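Hi V.,

You were right to ask for the full record rather than a summary. Here it is.
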Amino acid sequence: GNTDIYTLDVATQRRSRLTSAPSIETAPSFSPDGRQIVFESDRSGSQQLYVMPATGGQPRRISFGPGRYGTPVWSPRGDFIAFTKQNAGRFHIGVMRADGSAERLLTASFLDEGPTWSPNGRVLMFTRESAGAEGRPALFSVDISGRNLRRVPTETAASDPAWSPLLP
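Predicted structure:
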């Protein structure tokens, strides 16, 4: 089957269908200004990233490398998109400019997934699992240059990180 991207006006309960391709389209993320949506789709035959107006319109493909792209999320300023990429048996956390240019892979591991942006847009936190029976999920952070990869200490296995907003 296929899945599509919709928006829902909570006040009126009006639902608007944004995509209608015979493909799987998931993981939408709004740009900070609310004007665009990035999402993953296999409409090209492989899982890639697309951007479209939040009001509807023609999606524009922004990823073109080998492998499967997923879980896209806009940076707080809207200038970058972070994503997960699976290629050659490894998972990566990467970033690209909002137009798809300047793709950089920041990590490579058995399973890195689910990037989330720090409020200042300089650091990504994500979940990493190691191979084997002892592979428990852990939180890691890396800056957007790919430096300062660090495990975030937790007392138990941890996944799905979220940042609190900056306080005034």
